[in-house]
Amino acid sequence: MGRLTRVLIPLTLLCAGCSAAAASDRLVPAARVDPPVSGQQTAVLAGGCFWGMEAVFERVKGVSTVVSGYAGGSRSDANYESVSSEGTKHAEAVRITYDPRIVSYGTLLRVYFSVAHDPTQLNRQGPDIGTSYRSAIFPQSKIQAEVARAYIAQLTAAHSYARPIVTKIESGPFFAAEAYHQDFMRKNPRYPYIVANDVPKVRALSQLMPKLVKS
Predict the structure, then answer these.
(1) Residues 38-88: pLDDT tens digits?
(2) Catalytic site residues?
(3) Which SS3 state, helix, strand or coil, does residue 114 take?
(4) Domain of residue 198, CATH code
């Protein structure tokens, strides 16, 4: 408990730059382009603080693991201190390992666009400003890139949001974040930051997509 307290006190200050914005909180249409694939798959998505993104996706049926980390930059500066300085090319992101027989990539993107973050905020999420909080998809295959581009075009044409979608399709490696960032909500469910910023996202997932939520 003593060690946890020493870790969390500085994080309270640092995570003014790691705040999870409120979820989009609207159920957008399912992806029309979503071809089947076989074998275990991974997805890398960025949408603000990775604590909230991780908390949402680890509750989705068919997802086996979610890792918080940094995507889009180099290995040399893939650490919290560097990324928080907004001087790197990294975005806070999550790597999702999932079974496409249970949940498709298109469905994961539906969760991403509906409750995990607000895709209309440019280089920020809520009070958090900076490119490390950008809305970005990092396809792990040509099929994922096709699905992501088609889905953004679909939601744009349907005017699913009052403002333009600013989500970008990007490339770049993913690097896992420090151990104290992993499974943060599960380990610290009563942490005030989590209660204020991430619990609403998880609640929105359960309310809007109850059939997707693990029992």
Answers:
(1) 999 999 999 999 999 999 999 999 999 999 999 999 999 999 999 999 999
(2) 49
(3) helix
(4) 3.30.1060.10
